[in-house]
């Protein structure tokens, strides 16, 4: 049989193929020749054939028929055969195939071979694809090589030990004696792999972590020698001595110093030296600085050192490299909760990143900007964020609008500013806002009595300019229906009043009814507004005519409203003025009755305590009831609704819809057909009497944050603030972060408290918790505790992670005393 072609010739031949079919033909022909050679047990060219087979495997062609030939090469006495055999085993075999167990004895023999290079091949293969069975059998040989004086073998044995520990964690203690002298080695390769081994052991075992904390001074000395050493051509990278080893040592120091005062104190000085002496002109230096920053922020470092770390991140924001800017923004986002003031110093640089062309940097800058908003900078930050909202891509508008709403609700300096800000958002990005923005703004306007004339005038002007933004049109229609008399009378004091006639106002509302841009919901708002104006304007006959026209509308909802309004004009005309009078201020009174309401990220589910007799209508309601049942029967207080549905009621009562269709007796609210705007008892709200007061005071600084939940990579932290002027209200902000490598989607946070408390959940910032701590989901909880009892809470978390639904329950009883006393 002729000698097979060499690997180099095969590569050259395959590269001459002009088409995929031609290449496949060449590969198939060569595979057939290799198979024939294998069948004939040709020992002379087995090594060459396996090498060619590995090249084909790298190109994506099947090469499984060469697995046993790899084992034969490993068993050979020639180094060249062993080298190809071990390479083939690493590429073609894994622990899912039983064939790999056949090589255990060969590896054991080679680990005791007299030639270091053969031992190195065996260590590499075991560290690459060794199964748990192989690791158990060969761990003793690896541990023996870890103690040898040969640095070439020690570094390979250390990496092999890392693989053994990952596969069989209970073998960790076997390697403990061998680690004693690893850090005293002068060879950088051994030092590097030793640090990797120590890091793996510390991460997997708390006992090992305590044991190795005594090595902190030695690690600090090694790192100091690296920084202070002169030029060494063997280890120099862009003027920095062995940056790879420096990064590894910094990571190990981070693990050892976490939650330990003594270890953190021992490494403070060296971290300061690294942070100040590292050259930043090259990417190598930036990598070390970034790792230093992470270490400083993760250990119990001094406050000055933390400020230095944040200043380094601030310098990163000025770097021309987009990756460095992105890393800086992500890191600042993680630290903003703990070092808020230090991050605030870089606010202008962060805001400048909103103008970056890179969408990833824009998104991180937007999230960080919202995290920096507080009562002192709310006006300036909102100005920048609203400018960003005007010019940003559509993919950012929804998140940006949501963030502006939350920030304005939390830190608004005045009612007028709050109304102006939300109207600006509706004007520029109305199509992207969440559904609850319309009822929330209507509630805000209703409770701001002194702003009614100003608001209706602003909204009327906005309506004349643009009717394409449906949320804006809906709010405008509602306000014109409620306060149309103030618009026509020109009673606005905040700005110059405009002269508008009744017919002009009705023309605008009728135009909305016939516009192709109007949705059915918007038409319902417009028709209801026109109906309300029948008690505020003198043009009753014109209004009657408009309403009667829509009594035959093809839109069933609109038709039903029109028919009921016609009945008001005819049969119940004597009741019309009372039914259509102006909506009262939405009083925030206490609840009466045993109704339980579970709020799920802003959506409220009513239920009665005896849930077993209720029909199983929807799954969310059942889940809510399950959570409430955890606190035991009637010992649960209602959660108060803040997110109001915008869907028109089937009976035409639009104003009752805006109250949320809440039932105070346990059953669904029934809206009377001919009474679209009857004043009803309002649902309870927590922040009674806060309409003209700042929402929070400064006493919250004394309440420490707490971790309420930490499991499976999901971490829920609570931060606390006090409502002003009611000291019985605690405002809790949850921060949900995710340390896993995959996003947690469809995230829902639910909570329940005993009946002596009242609980109110606001809408979350998002329903996706980003992976690797690259962002957080925030949500505000308000708890009324009039009796100053110790706070208890049950929480239910549901989300989807890596395609699988996850659900968990937890009880939170360790609230700081300052939060409820």
From TrEMBL:
Pfam families: Adaptin_N, Alpha_adaptinC2
InterPro entries in the cross-refs: Adaptor_Complx_Large_Subunit (IPR050840), AP1_complex_gsu (IPR017107), ARM-like (IPR011989), ARM-type_fold (IPR016024), Clathrin/coatomer_adapt-like_N (IPR002553), Clathrin_a/b/g-adaptin_app_Ig (IPR008152), Clathrin_app_Ig-like_sf (IPR013041), GAE_dom (IPR008153)
GO biological process, one term: vesicle-mediated transport
GO CC terms of this entry: AP-1 adaptor complex
Keyword Membrane included in the entry's annotation: yes
Keyword Protein biosynthesis: no
Cellular localization per UniProt: Cytoplasmic vesicle membrane; Endomembrane system; Golgi apparatus
Membrane topology: Peripheral membrane protein
Keywords noted in UniProt: Cytoplasmic vesicle, Golgi apparatus, Membrane, Protein transport, Transport
GAE domain mapped to chain residues: 701-816
SUPFAM superfamilies linked: ARM repeat (SSF48371), Clathrin adaptor appendage domain (SSF49348)
Family designation: Belongs to the adaptor complexes large subunit family.
Protein name: AP-1 complex subunit gamma
